[in-house]
Design a protein that fits this description.
mainly beta, Neuraminidase, five-stranded antiparallel beta sheet, 2 helices
Length: 313
């Protein structure tokens, strides 16, 4: 999710449509097949499911379950903030978008489903304690998969939620958690990693100055094998606009290369954020405001390797 006040003001300034009853919108056409039946993109980004997912509302995030039969995204709904919405594939095709059973009462966004499908991470302003006041800042929550559904959300605890605001949890295949916090960092928001050891998260480690700067870093996607990191940064000198996507590669010694701007193939004078990889690794999703409101885009994931090739020239 975009974290800077400048970008947040941009979102809040747009006309918001309530998502309290998504079933009241225009009928969704019959959608059958992988990825909502959409024709796969090439190496040029294309808007994802126009008029169905990407509409006149502001939609961000794009998360499929590993079997590809559940899709989650977030819709901005005015004073309520963000609501998580889902579509599911059945025998007759994909369902219309509807508010996820666990969402709708508090601002919730930045979803990630683990590679095995066992856990669903998201951020929320829901009360940390039962009966308490809503959280003033976003905190990371998680749900476990049980009998085809999701358990009740649980707060990830103070080891991870150590600051007033945590954003955009993503998890590598080995269980290492990557996320953003506005505490204990180099600038307005930094990336951290926390290894998962013996059923608990170790103390988070800052990813260091090759990634984190005095500018506002947010929305980091880690590769399944931790080989690359794609993230949004706001205000860097080489920025194309409000917020750009950058990529860094893991060096042989385990350190990170200096992040490079993903350039005009991905970035525009508007804001690009919310990077995500499809479960099969074939498609790279992100959110962009290039049409005047936030929409979800996708592109062939082979584009990621073009940046590695350019770096190695």
């Amino acid at each position: 999710m975009k974290a800077s006040m400048t970008l947040l003001a941009f979102v809040l300034g747009l006309t918001a449509v309530s998502v309290g009853d998504l079933r009241g919108q225009e009928p969704v056409p019959v959608l059958k097949g992988p990825y909502l039946g959409q024709s796969p993109p090439g190496l040029e980004p294309e808007i994802f499911a126009p008029g169905i997912v990407s509409t006149q509302r502001n939609e961000i995030n794009s998360v499929f379950t590993p079997d590809g039969r559940e899709f989650y995204f977030s819709v901005f709904g005015g004073g309520r903030g963000y609501t998580i919405v889902t579509m599911k594939e059945g025998e007759d095709g994909w369902s219309a978008p509807e508010v996820a059973a666990f969402s709708g009462d508090y601002s919730e966004v930045d979803m990630f489903i683990t590679h095995g499908g066992e856990q669903f991470f998201f951020i929320s302003k829901r009360p940390i304690e039962n009966g308490g006041a809503r959280s003033s800042g976003y905190q990371i929550w998680v749900m476990d998969r049980r009998s085809g559904g999701w358990d009740e959300p649980r707060h990830l605890g103070g080891t991870i939620n150590f600051g007033p605001r945590q954003l955009y949890p993503t998890v590598a295949r080995d269980g290492t958690l990557y996320f953003n916090s506005n505490a204990r960092g180099h600038g307005k928001g930094d990336f951290f990693q926390a290894a998962y050891v013996d059923g608990a998260y170790a103390d988070p480690e800052n990813l260091g100055s090759a990634i984190n700067t005095q500018h506002d870093e947010t929305d980091a996607l880690i590769a399944p094998d931790k080989d690359w990191l794609i993230f949004t940064s706001v205000g860097r000198p080489d920025s194309y606009g409000s917020g750009d996507l950058y990529i860094a590669f893991r060096e042989a010694d385990g350190s990170w290369s200096v992040a490079q701007n993903m350039g005009e193939r991905i970035n525009t004078s508007s804001s690009e954020f919310c990077p995500m990889l499809s479960p099969d690794g074939n498609f790279f999703f992100f959110t962009s405001g290039r049409r005047g409101n936030d929409d979800i885009y996708w592109v062939d994931a082979r584009i990621i390797e073009t940046y590695r090739a350019e770096r190695n020239r």
